[in-house]
Specification:
The structure holds 2 protein chains of 2 kinds.
Chain A (H helix, E strand, L loop, with lengths): L1 H4 L18 E6 L14 H10 L4 E3 L8 E3 L7 E5 L5 E2 L10 E7 L27 H6 L16 H12 L8 H5 L5 H8 L15 E5 L2 E7 L5 H4 L10 H7 L21 E7 L3 E6 L34 E6 L3 H9 L5 E3 L5 H4 E3 L5 E3 L1 H5 L3 E6 L2 E7 L11 H13 L2 H8 L4 E3 L23 E4 L2 E4 L2 H10 L15 E6 L7 H12 L4 E6 L2 H10 L4 E7 L6 H4 L8 H4 L10 H11 L5 H17 L2 E13 L3 E2 L15 E2 L1 H11 L5 H26 L1
Chain B lengths: L1 H29 L2 H9 L6 H10 L16 H4 L2 H6 L16 H36 L4 H15 L2 H15 L15 H31 L2 H8 L4 H24 L8 H6 L8 H7 L3 H29 L7
Helix pairs in contact in B: 1-14, 2-3, 6-9, 7-9, 8-9, 9-11, 10-11, 11-14, 13-14
Classes of the chains: A alpha+beta, B mainly alpha.
Chain lengths: 695, 325
């Protein structure tokens, strides 16, 4: 009766009824973020939050492709100046070997302010209210929001300088500190100077290469020429940090309450963290002090037709609040998305067939059920490469000998990644023809871009070479029919993997079968994460799978994975296959700091051709991302480089409220049926009991 | 009895120390401090200097159990084991390797766990006892046989099936409750009702069979025959005589699990997104967060010891013949 008396609509609504028609975006997260400090955070689940809160000087244009940098808090793109060893200015056309230093001069927009925050709160005399909290006050705090007063202030260039100094402080443990030592002048020396000093001490200390020229301008001096440094300026590591934040959060006792900069950010972005409960939900609220920024007025030619320019020129952000709910399991998450309680959803293997179907022409489309609900499917090829690597230090599969090269090429033909994508990824991937994924400068589509060592071009598309061709290569390598002449048995190769679970067995069997096509025996050496990493570091793995996701959209960020001085075993770098080819290294060194242009493009093609020939990798695939969005989700365009898309997103809350109501009418009749069934079941028992009493 | 309790508390210290050492050794057989640093620092651009710095900042650059280079007591205290474990005995859990205060996290997460586990236990106990008594009432009839078959069927089904099935049926098809989620205070009720019902339902098979066995053992005893001979009805006999006498094993079974209710249920909390302690340890193991793992193992063993102590005490309360010495 109680249930019957309730409003039959939306009993299953996990949110408050009052929020139903507000501009709130509902999303989920499956793993709580470890860090929200922009100097430390580096994972995508952390960027999902802090990219909306913190603002580096640059950002990626939301609509234009290929990816382009645009100013964010900067008033324009950085002014780049080359200098020689004596510090004299060089022309833009200076040769790379003459450039000893490069200055990046960044001028900030006026009027950018921080979100309201207790660390910036001041009293009537202009003194900070909460920089000297008593032990009693701290003892009574449960969360940062228990401090009633907040304040703000204008963004200063000194805040960017301060953040770069934070990156260097060993106590902050920034993951890019070691890389930046190679680039920013004075970074390594600064790290040594402050090693035994508290975090707050860096305010008064200076780093040689990073200087605030004025309240709205600062300069970063880097060693040599490194054009990719501009991309780093669009990463959150280079977001500003007011010195007040460290002074506030470093007060003794706050850390014990989990009130730290790592959990309560302070930024200038479109949103601030309004609720921080990583065990349940995180809420971003609109920053009332957000500076003037408007939706882009330009994009790709087709953007207008897709309605992506409908909001052109309108002030950002559109959404008042974004609620991120913790959902660890995919089944309840997908069900709630289908009920309209999440606005967007990824597609897991479990529910792939429910959501997506392949048409006769191999095109991807939504199923009829999803179409009926008005859902939108967004697909995008990730700027990542997943590959199967050979350890080039291995005596069998590695090395530069002709025999080893042909063995690797034969395996590259046999391991059918088209089949892999179809079986294990529901078609969500594009077979890789080289190191560089689509969307990155230097990638070539079509016949010119195929890996001719593995594919041939027929009927307007690439076809994997035949197994006969692979066997021929294998025979030329000295392993006719896969037989090792030394033992007279099938050549045994070893696949080192972390895939040790029961669910991974089909995939491991598939790998075995691919090698068996050539008569080779693949032995699986499954191990845990730590042991696998150790094998990779010490060079004890033979064949392995690995992947790389772009830090920034430049071919250097992929081709450096095969650069000799980055070899993992010898130098602890990211060249996991320990590939070392002097010719490749020479071309790479020439290409890496070059500005994009015909010469660079040709060098990239030569580098690709070299690795296709040497085959240190089976290029595998570039993962394809499928995501579902409800019809009320607007301004939807995949941007794999930008993480601050939330401010561009718009929600039609009225449409959502209508559809939620339509989709979530409670159904009571099975409940009554079950109750009736129970009564019927109980009736014989009651009768039997009465009989027993009478008897 | 006070002496007995004090003695048992003192016994607990070497047990907890042993558990701590065992956890420590097992953890560091599988993970080295370098491995932990790599996992915390992420996958990209990690250098040995960064790893060394992380270890230094988190005091993982000390020897594991014994510092042969130190002098005097520092040989023992200047070690990872001492630095990380000694404070546990004062209930100072310290900071997790990712920088959060473990004590604050445990405090925050234990309430949702309790909000789910306690009603599930109480309602489940009531339902199971009632059903078991009913089966005893109708013993040797087709109703009992049908009930037994049903119990075996219910026992044979995985709890995961109940969870997914319950979410599908009540949340997705009937749309009567939210599929998952949690809220504070009384607002949590609509989120907890389904997991509690599923928890109760999934425990019926084994619970009813167990309690039925206890009741059947009692109904064959002389005092029950005497009660019947006095002319008491079967229901009065069962409720007034059999139930109180069968309470001893029931109570001891319940009391032993009471402290561990704080620790929650991994699967249930994960599927219903209840922010309890259930998944806290598993997450910590996956993240190689030793600080959290050792805190949770310590807490688990402490609560288990406490449960056993409470069981012993409860014996004396429900059966005056039992004396603790």
């Amino acid at each position: 009766m109680l249930l019957g008396a309730c409003q039959p609509s939306q009993l299953n609504n996990p949110y408050g009824d009052a929020d139903d028609q507000l501009d709130i975006l509902y999303q989920s997260f499956s793993e709580r973020p470890k860090h929200l400090d922009p100097a430390v955070a580096y994972a995508s689940n952390e960027y999902a939050f802090i990219a909306q809160i913190y603002e580096p000087p640059l950002q990626y244009h939301y609509l234009k492709r290929p990816y382009q940098l645009t100013p964010l808090t900067a008033s324009a793109l950085p002014q780049v100046q080359y200098l020689n060893a004596q510090g004299a200015l060089l022309p833009d056309t200076a040769a790379e070997q003459d450039i000893a230093f490069t200055d990046y001069i960044i001028t900030l927009q006026a009027g950018v302010r921080y979100q309201p925050h207790p660390a910036l709160a001041k009293d009537a005399h202009g003194d900070y209210l909460y920089h000297h909290l008593s032990a009693d006050v701290i003892a009574n705090l449960k969360t940062l929001y228990d401090l009633p007063k907040t304040g703000t202030r204008t963004l200063l260039s000194e805040d960017y300088v301060y953040q770069i100094k934070r990156l260097a402080h060993p106590k902050i443990q920034s993951p890019i500190a070691e890389i930046m030592k190679n680039y920013i002048v004075g970074f390594a020396e600064f790290a040594q100077q402050v090693a035994d000093k508290p975090k707050t001490a860096i305010k008064e200390m200076s780093m040689e290469g990073v200087v605030a020229n004025s309240p709205t301008q600062y300069r970063i001096r880097i060693k040599g020429k490194y054009p990719q440094f501009s991309y780093w300026l669009a990463m959150l590591f280079f977001a500003p940090m007011p010195w007040e934040a460290d002074v506030f959060y470093e007060q003794p006792g706050l850390k014990d309450k989990n009130i730290t900069l790592d959990w309560f950010p302070i930024g200038t972005g479109a949103y601030f963290l309004a609720e921080n409960n990583p065990n349940r939900r995180m809420v971003l609220g609109k920053n009332s002090y957000f500076h003037a920024e408007s939706y882009p007025t330009e994009g790709e030619p087709e953007d207008k037709a897709k309605g992506l320019l409908a909001d052109a020129g309108k002030p950002l952000p559109f959404i008042d609040k974004a609620v991120f709910m913790l959902e660890k399991e995919t089944i309840p998450y997908c069900s709630k998305f289908q009920q309209g309680y999440f606005d967007a959803s990824g597609i897991a293997s479990d529910n792939f067939d429910q959501a997506v179907q392949f048409t006769g022409g191999g095109e991807v489309a939504l199923t009829e059920t999803m179409k009926a609900k008005g859902m939108q499917l967004q697909t995008s090829v990730e700027t990542s490469t997943f590959y199967m690597g050979f350890n080039m230090l291995d005596t069998t599969v590695g090395g530069t000998s002709e025999s080893a090269r042909k063995l690797r090429q034969a395996i590259a033909i046999a391991v059918d990644f088209e089949e892999f994508i179809s079986i294990f990824r529901n078609g969500r991937g594009v077979p890789a023809q080289g190191v560089i994924p689509p969307g990155i400068y230097g990638f070539v589509d079509g016949q010119d871009g195929i890996n001719s060592a593995v594919y041939e071009w027929r009927d307007g598309k690439p076809h994997r070479k035949t197994i006969a061709a692979a066997k021929q290569l294998l025979a030329e390598a000295g392993y006719a029919n896969g037989v090792n002449p030394k033992t007279g048995q099938a050549l045994i190769l070893y696949f080192d993997t972390m895939a040790a679970g029961v669910d991974d067995r089909p995939m491991l069997n598939w790998y075995r079968k691919q090698f068996a096509k050539l008569g080779l025996e693949l032995v699986i050496r499954a191990t845990d994460y730590n042991r696998f990493q150790e094998k990779m570091r010490t060079g004890n793995a033979q064949i392995f799978t690995w992947g790389w996701n772009a830090d920034y959209p430049d071919p250097e960020n992929f081709l450096f994975l095969l650069y000799g001085p980055n070899a993992k075993v010898k130098f602890g770098g990211e060249n996991a296959s320990n590939y070392q080819n002097p010719e490749f290294d020479r071309l790479f060194e020439k290409m890496r700091n070059m500005d994009n242009g015909e010469e660079r493009y040709q060098l990239i093609q030569q580098l690709q051709a070299q690795v296709r020939h040497d085959a240190p990798w089976l290029f595998g695939f570039h993962p394809k991302n499928f995501a579902l969005f409800h019809s009320w989700y607007k301004n939807l365009k995949p941007n794999l480089m930008a993480n601050n898309q939330l401010k561009y997103t718009r929600i039609n809350a009225q449409e959502r409220a209508q559809k939620r109501e339509q989709w979530n009418q409670a159904v009571f009749w099975p409940f009554w049926l079950a109750a009736g069934g129970l009564v019927l079941l109980a009736w014989p028992a009651v009768r039997a009991y009465r009989r027993k009493l009478r008897g | 009895m006070i002496q007995y309790i004090i003695r048992r508390i003192l016994y607990a210290f070497p047990i907890l120390l042993g558990v701590n050492i065992l956890t420590f050794v097992l953890f560091f057989i599988v993970n080295s401090p370098d491995d932990m640093a790599r996992l915390q620092l992420g996958q990209k651009h990690i250098t040995q200097q960064a790893i060394d710095n992380w270890k230094h900042q988190h005091a993982y650059d000390l020897p594991l159990l014994w510092d042969s280079h130190a002098v005097g007591g520092e040989k023992l205290t200047h070690t990872i084991f001492f630095e990380k474990s000694a404070s546990l005995f004062m209930f100072r859990f310290g900071m997790s390797d990712s920088g959060r205060n473990i004590g604050a996290d445990i405090q925050e997460r234990s309430l949702p766990s309790l909000a789910l586990a306690l009603p599930t236990l109480v309602v489940g106990l009531g339902v199971n006892i009632c059903l078991a008594l009913m089966m005893v009432l109708f013993r040797n009839s087709y109703l009992e046989q049908a009930g037994m078959v049903l119990c075996v069927l219910l026992m044979s089904v995985s709890s995961l099936f109940y969870i997914i099935g319950g979410q599908f049926f009540a949340g997705k098809l009937l749309k009567l409750v939210p599929i998952s989620g949690y809220d504070n205070g009384f607002a949590a009720f609509k989120f907890l009702i389904l997991p509690i019902l599923i928890g109760v339902f999934s425990g019926i098979g084994s619970g009813v069979r167990w309690y039925r066995t206890l009741f059947l053992e009692e109904v064959g005893k002389d005092y029950v025959r005497t009660a019947r001979a006095k002319g008491l009805t079967e229901t009065a006999t069962l409720f007034r005589h059999v139930l109180p006498n069968a309470m001893i094993p029931i109570l001891t079974g319940v009391v032993v699990v009471l402290p561990s209710l704080f620790l929650g249920s991994l699967v249930m909390e994960s599927f219903f997104s209840i922010p309890g302690l259930g998944s806290y340890t598993i997450d910590a193991i996956n993240n190689q967060d030793f600080a959290t793992v050792r805190a949770m193992v310590f807490l688990g063993s402490l609560l288990y010891v406490l449960g056993l102590l409470l069981t012993d005490i409860s014996y004396t309360l429900v059966d005056p013949r039992v004396r603790l010495s």
